[in-house]
Write a structure and sequence with these properties.
single chain, about 325 residues, alpha/beta, five-stranded mixed beta sheet, 10 helices, 10 strands, about 40% helix, binds 5'-O-[(R)-(carboxyoxy)(hydroxy)phosphoryl]adenosine, binds zinc ion
Amino acid sequence: MKILGIESSCDETAAAVVENGRAVKSNVIASSLDKHKLYGGVVPEIASRCHAEAISGVVQQALDKAGCTMQDIDALAVTYAPGLIGALLVGVNFAKGLAFACNKPLVPVHHLRGHIASNYLTSNLEPPFLCLVVSGGHSHIVAVNGYTEYKVIGRTRDDAAGEALDKAGRAMGLEYPGGVSIDKISKNGMADAFEFPHPKVDGSPYDFSFSGLKTSVINIIHKHEQRGDNINVPDLAASFQKSVVNCLISNLEKAALNFGYNKIVLAGGVSANSLLRKECAAMCKRRSWQLQLPELCYCGDNGAMVASQGYYEFLAGTIAKSSLNAYATMPIDIINF
Ligand code: KG4
Ligand code: ZN
């Protein structure tokens, strides 16, 4: 079964053709990232306009690269939530029009379920497993008990991990997105140069809080500026990255132990982070747990992950009506469209 997956929840216009949820036939991404760099973050209006300009060409390229026409496609899958509403609407409306015109079923896909499915593209991974989903907008520890069965065990109380990295990077004067810049520059820094407090979160022992760490970075920078000192940015970046990764790993380890999971999976843009991947591998080795990391090319937003999850949603009977809408927020464990 060939599925055409369409993604437009943030700044990537993406489309892909994937067979039976696993075999990637094509994966085309057009990013408007460069246009947002000037502003230090994604500007929703610019993102929407770029999606509208790019989407027909991206979908056509995905079909061409897969050697397909719409006749060869069995179903369409589209990210309908969560994300930037104007951006999501471009993908959803395009997919609705194409599905209607070609008389094909349309499957709505939750963006984070898609990120988790990026792991199905390069391995024979099957649920159940415990997944740390870390992106620009979300930081969740999710028990994935089936292809469409999820239970959120921990979540961030404030900023997402990617958001905190992006904001800290901006405060350090690094290029957007800060997460990518911090990962790069940290390789030249000493991770024990600055100390950050381990944030305390009331309530769930698996929840995260990153806004305090981000404020600490900003305070350190201000103090140095006031004293007229030059700050060692690679050292600061490396220390901050280490403290974010420590928070993520320590809660993930606790959750895996307490809920009895021995298969650990990462997903989302931040799963590309080299220290997070290294520390996760070290934890799994120490505990003799199985580890699955998404390939770097599937960590960020892409159409293949949407097509993959779309396959499993289709098998579970989830088909959109022509009234399908987009939603800026939506819990991962609910299908509501
Ligand atoms: O999943 P994604 O592409 O978009 C959302 O769904 O949000 O994630 C984007 C986030 C950004 O915050 C970006 O800084 C972060 O992923 N990111 C990284 C790395 N690559 C992307 N963070 C740390 N290290 C990286 N190598
Ligand atoms: Zn994403």
